[in-house]
Design goal:
Blueprint lengths: L39 E4 H5 L24 E2 L21 E7 L9 H10 L3 E7 L3 H10 L6 E5 H6 L3 H8 L4 H4 L15 H5 L2 E2 L2 E2 L2 E4 L7 E5 H7 L7 H11 L13 H8 L8 E3 L5 E3 L4 H15 L5 H4 L6 H6 L5 E4 L2 H13 L5 E3 L19 E7 L5 H14 L6 H8 L6 E3 L5 E3 L1 H6 L3 H5 L6 E2 L7 H12 L11 E4 L2 H18 L8 H26 L3
Parallel strand pairs: 2-17, 3-4, 3-5
Antiparallel strand pairs: 1-18, 5-14, 6-7, 8-14, 9-12, 9-13, 10-11, 15-16
Helix pairs in contact: 2-16, 10-11, 20-21
């Protein structure tokens, strides 16, 4: 929302990643007697009758206006904050159990930030915080055993892996239609401020099943570089594929423990012009449904990556595994460029600049493989992730949990937003001369996006005195990239991938990875694609084409 990178380590600031890559296989065990192999689709028209009526909850006019679907940016922090929630969310005081992912060091259990939000909300939220890199495995176990907490956060790309989720979601989680559809959402006014398209994206089988986290930008990945080091060394940001290669050569010096690159695979595909916002599928100008793997632009991207790995321009920690801690390598000056979600920008830059005030992380302006050749930018779904409420808790408890999610939906400019994002003044942050929070080491230790991942809020891009240009940098980058956004013909149709194709995706992705990293010869590329077609790729094509035909597209 998604996936964005193989390990999604830097999914930290909530940019939609779910539509970007091949979904891997997976079955929601115990949730269906049938294999559910055919896939399914819920149209926006079907969803329109059950979604909440929108009521804008924006409190503060933006400093930098985003070109939709890019969020607005805020350079300055509001001088006065509103109380968005006036009553305790949990009137019973009963503890709330919740599961969320996190791509970083585990926060301490004794946590002053969490305790402060809990006190304001009216009950203890007992978080089970799981490693985001293995969150899918944890979800498979939980869902298969039907052992879920009261609130379960599930990112979109993990849902893509659960081939029978459209059935399992109804077996495990509460139907929220009776609580939130139409004007019923007025009981939870901050939830009414979430984007309508995100709510439409929350409908399975004609029922509103989850509370969405709307994306703050449509871009599943950005290409970041260490602008401070590049400027110091007189190396320009690349504007073509050849210049990207030259950049990599200039920055790689193994004797100094320096390699130019982390994982840039998603970016290279888009630079080369390989489209496919809908789980890799796209519609060509002549009306044919194809997968990006079948495009010459995709093969060019594979060949380019193969060259980078062969010449050892990618850090060995990344080249030798499915990940490597690219954020730490980037902050530590071990790599100088990598691609990941937009959320990593702020969440990497912020702590790094506290250690190195010169640290300047920037996203490279979008470019195509060759001069004059435009790139393509994939477009994510309106929702990044969803929070689901456990089924069968009863009306009173379900309403209480919805009030928790109403609390987490507090918009920028509210006291609740500040508390969830920055913690307690004097404990986790101090204010600068303009009143903006400046976080400290305790915040870094205790903050794990606990309440941010728990529920959605109206998306914004917010800077701060430690990274004063961030909001403007991000929104302006997104506004420029908007001209290259791919049109997704399946937009507004909630498509569940057929299980046969879903099961193929990860093994196929692994085979492509083996080629790029030199474990399999590049000559095997066509064979991999041919095997994918025969084993279910062509059947997937028929399915996606039928979905379009059924919806008059």
């Amino acid at each position: 929302m998604q996936g964005a990178s193989t390990n999604r380590r830097n999914f930290l600031g909530l940019v939609g990643l779910g539509a970007a890559s091949l979904a891997s296989g997976g079955v929601l065990a115990g949730c269906s007697k049938e294999p559910g192999a055919k896939g399914s689709a819920t149209t926006a028209e079907q969803a329109a009758g059950v979604v909440p009526n929108f009521k804008d909850s924006t409190l503060v006019p933006p400093d930098v206006k985003g070109v939709r679907p890019m969020a607005d940016g805020y350079v300055k922090y509001p001088t006065s904050l509103a109380d968005a929630v006036t009553e305790k969310a949990v009137s019973s005081g009963k503890p709330v159990t919740a599961s969320t992912p996190w791509w970083g060091p585990a926060p301490p259990t004794a946590n002053k930030l969490v305790a402060a939000v809990n006190a304001d909300m009216g009950a203890e939220v007992k978080f089970s915080i799981q490693d985001g890199n293995t969150y899918g495995d944890k979800l498979n176990t939980m869902l298969g055993a039907r052992d879920v907490p009261e609130l379960t956060c599930i990112p979109g790309w993990e849902i893509n892996k659960l081939a029978r989720f459209s059935e399992g979601v109804h077996a495990l989680f509460e139907d929220l239609t009776p609580y939130l559809s139409g004007d019923k959402v007025n009981a939870y006014p901050l939830l009414a401020g979430l984007d309508t398209k995100a709510w439409q994206d929350s409908v399975w089988g004609g029922k509103l099943m989850g509370v969405p986290f709307p994306t703050d930008s449509p871009y599943p990945s950005l290409l970041y570089y260490r602008k401070d080091v590049a400027d110091e060394r007189g190396i320009a940001a690349p504007t073509t594929l050849d210049e990207l290669y030259d950049f990599a050569k200039k920055f790689t010096n193994p004797d100094k423990g320096e390699w130019a690159l982390g994982d840039i695979w998603l970016e290279v595909q888009q630079i080369c012009g390989a489209g496919g916002s809908e789980n890799g599928w796209l519609k060509t100008a002549d009306g044919k449904v194809v997968h990006r793997m079948e495009l010459p632009e995709y093969k060019r991207a594979v060949e380019f990556m193969t060259r980078l790995y062969a010449e050892k321009l990618v850090h060995p920690d990344v080249a030798g595994s499915k990940g490597g801690d690219t954020g730490a390598l980037f902050k530590g000056g071990k790599i100088f460029m990598y691609g990941t979600g937009g959320g990593a920008w702020k969440e990497t830059w912020r702590p790094a600049v506290q250690i190195n005030p010169k640290f300047n992380m920037q996203a490279i302006k979008v470019f195509g493989a060759d001069k004059g050749k435009p790139p393509v930018r994939w477009q994510t779904n309106p929702s990044i992730m969803w929070t689901f409420i456990k089924k069968g808790l009863g009306q009173e408890r379900t309403q209480e949990l919805l009030r928790v999610l109403n609390y987490t939906a507090a918009p920028f400019g509210s006291k609740e937003y500040e508390l969830q994002n920055f913690g307690v003044e004097g404990t986790h942050f101090k204010r600068d001369a303009n009143g903006a929070p400046v976080t400290n080491d305790l915040w870094v230790k205790e903050f794990a996006n606990q309440f941010i991942f728990l529920g959605g809020r109206p998306p914004v891009v917010v800077g701060g005195p430690d990274i004063p240009t961030y909001a403007e940098d991000f929104v302006n980058w997104g506004n420029d990239a908007a001209q290259y956004l791919e049109t997704n013909p399946w937009s507004g149709i909630k498509v569940e991938t057929p299980s046969q194709q879903a099961a193929l995706a990860q093994p196929t992705e692994d085979k492509i990875t083996d080629i790029m990293r030199g474990r399999t010869p590049i000559g095997d590329f066509e064979k991999v694609v041919s095997e994918w077609r025969a084993a279910g790729g062509d059947a997937g094509r028929d399915f996606y084409a039928k979905v379009l035909a059924d919806n008059g597209r």
